[in-house]
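Hello Y.,

Per our agreement to keep a running log of every chain we model this quarter, I'm adding this entry. I've kept the format consistent with earlier entries: sequence first, then predicted structure.
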Amino acid sequence: MTNWYQRHSVLLLDDLGAESAKDWAVERLTALVDERLRLGKRMVLATNLTQAQALERLGDRLTSRVFQTNQELGDVTLVAIVATDYRGRRP
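Predicted structure for the entry above:
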């Protein structure tokens, strides 16, 4: 199932953690992220979750991979964008 995702040079996952946090979904996401990290393939993950929220919702295995800071395990850059929600604004 993940072969299609692994063939591409960049993978974009938007709203990580917004999906139903069923064991199966977390297991598949963990495998997908882990494999891309091991292969040195690029990915962009967008989430509204803090690390603590991700730990509670997605578990320690996936959270440790998404928020890892050990440069020996791969180049992960965390970019935090703090802004108000633009969708509620009127023009």
